[in-house]
Design brief:
Elements lengths: L1 H21 L9 H18 L1 H23 L2 H5 L6 H35 L1
Helix pairs in contact: 1-2, 1-5, 2-3, 3-5
Length: 122
């Protein structure tokens, strides 16, 4: 999980940076994925020393990110119909949402597997 967490953080920082450049530096909200990514990256680095703390922190941030990006994801239909007011925001939010959902799902799977392993060990 620590390597996945670090990788996700780096990927989100890259996505946020690209989004900020793609919007001609006009909107700081394009950096939201980068901000989420930076926090997740730091949590990933923490998890190298204290795995449980770092991964739990990253998952908490990821859940908040899912909740925060879900509003723009709801406009995906408008984006497909080419009626979205802020198409870049909808696209970037959807990508961020999908990555975070994947990460949270993988994290839950990892926790369940660890619990089963611990139970089987005793």
């Amino acid at each position: 999980m620590p390597q996945l967490t670090i990788g996700l953080g780096v990927l989100l920082v890259a996505i946020g940076s690209i989004a900020f450049i793609a919007t001609s530096f006009a909107s700081w909200t394009a950096l939201i994925p980068a901000m989420l990514g930076a926090v997740i990256l730091v949590a990933g680095l923490i998890s190298l020393k204290k795995q449980k703390l770092g991964v739990h922190l990253a998952l908490a941030v990821a859940v908040l990110g899912v909740l925060g990006t879900s509003r723009n994801v709801m406009q995906l239909e408008a984006l497909i119909a080419r009626e979205a007011e802020r198409p870049t925001a909808v696209l970037i939010s959807t990508i961020t949402f999908a990555l975070l959902i994947f990460y949270v799902g993988f994290g839950i799977h990892s926790f369940v597997a660890a619990r089963r392993w611990k139970t089987a060990e005793t």
